[in-house]
Amino acid sequence: MRITMKGRKACRLQSGSAIYLMANKHKCLLLGVTLLLSSQVWGAQTNLGSYGQTQLQQDTGDAVQLTCGGFIAAGADPSTPLFATCRAMVHTANDLAGTGASGDSLALSEDQLAASLQEIATEEFAATESMANEISNSRMSPVMSRLLELRGGATGFSASGLLPGSAAQSLAANGWATSSGMRGGAAGDEGLGSALGGFINASYGTGDRDATGRADGFDFDSYDVMVGVDYRLGNDLVLGAALNYYEVDSDFDTSTTVSGGGVDADGWGASIYASWYKESFYFDAIAGFSQTDYDVERSILIPNNNAGGSAISETAKGRPESTDYTFSLGGGYNMNRGALDYGPYFRATYSNVDMDGYQESGAETSGLNLRVNGEEWESLTTVLGAQFSYAMSRDFGVLLPNARLGWVHQFENDAVEMTAVYVDDPRNNILRASTDDADEDYAELSLGLSAVFKGGMQGFFNYETLIGFDDLTSHLFTVGVRSEF
């Protein structure tokens, strides 16, 4: 809550967009105590901050006005870019409130001033967390795909796409896939072929995230290529390693408070994995590491409604880096009833992302370049679900529709706070931006169709999505082939 005395006879109370003007200071203080005891939270500490319509905008306004105060206390040159920008915004708030210096006001409305606070806020950084999670998940899925093939007895070289479902398992279990390089269904079968195998996976994903009070909305496209080798130790244990390269491109949705920008990422990762299987039981373990380079662009647009006045229109750019570690343990049980293969599965995954701090460039005219502090994110999820496949023999080979549905629970679902300061701020006043709380419960769904043709060639189509994930829509489409040499 904030109480501002206007002269000696009035005061102004504001939280969010609610404003109370009281002519009697005693009634004002009484109202203030009442509001403090109410369930509402009043966050702004300065006049500029009080014009913010969200907590993020209020916090940004407070930081900007405190920055101006630091320049004044330091006796800085009034023409210093950051000083001139923050002074114009503070004078605009003063102009709207009808109090204080307003000679450099931009003549904005309350909504325009709130939108300008959003433009210079740090909510774009929340997209890097979403992107880091997307990268971590995309690296794990191809390895899980390969483990499914290996448990089915696949040998040789595999060229396939992301998540073919339980195609390899079902075909092997029903004894219909010997021509594709699989032998029988039991792990104890002899003559599984070459112990050394390899694979290549290619995937494409797309989706979008809705805007919230803490983060800008954006849409994204992802691309990933993975290659790996593995070695079968006896009939029940496989060890392997893989390398992958990925790109993720995102663009912020343009709105009244967001003038554009985006976050792009590319990098490489490495994984090691193992699978132990005995009759119908199996257990998997995966450990992964990745190094990612980001290009972050913040589009800044602050209008000026004065005749002949110049708007601020710049793009601040940063190039942070991150490293992440991922560990996953899982297992399941497979059952067969004729051509139907089904069973439960379980997986627990922990990931840790360490984002380096960085400094922006490109907004020198306004002085709004930021120095962003490094941050660390953790995620711990479990998945409990069931997978199904049904093998249908045809003259040209075997068709295998398959599906997987799992309930995902996120244990590390607290919001993460990211902090930054203006590069030229003499007092380093902190700007804060919190991510949204992670979804605690949602579901993963995979639908696919695989085909094994005579001679051993395989192909498939697969679709994967998330169900019940707030504010995020994600789709993954995959077409792939598999061949052995």
State the end-to-end CA separation.
71 Å
Secondary-structure-based class equals alpha+beta
Number of strands: 23
Largest sheet: 12 strands, antiparallel, barrel
Give the helix level as a range of percent.
10-25%
Segments where pLDDT lies below 50 for 5+ residues? Answer: 1-42, 152-193
Radius of gyration: 28 Å
Element string (H = helix, E = strand): EEEHHHHHEHEEEEEEEEEEEEEEEEEEE
How many helices? 6
Strand order of the largest sheet: 5-6-7-8-9-11-13-16-18-21-22-23
> Strand fraction band?
over 45%
Silhouette: elongated
Q: What is the averaged pLDDT score?
A: 75
Would you kindly provide a written description of the structure presented here, covering whatever features stand out?
The chain has helices spanning 25-36, 55-74, 81-97, 110-119, 126-151, 167-173, and strands at 2-6, 10-15, 18-22, 157-161, 196-209, 218-233, 237-252, 261-278, 281-302, 312-318, 321-333, 335-337, 340-355, 358-359, 370-372, 375-390, 392-394, 397-410, 417-422, 431-434, 441-453, 458-467, 472-482. With 485 residues, the chain is α+β, with helices and mostly antiparallel strands. Strands 5-6-7-8-9-11-13-16-18-21-22-23 form a 12-stranded antiparallel barrel. Helix 6 (167-173) links the parallel strand 4 (157-161) and strand 5. Helix 2 (55-74) crosses helix 3 and helix 2 (55-74) crosses helix 4. It is elongated.
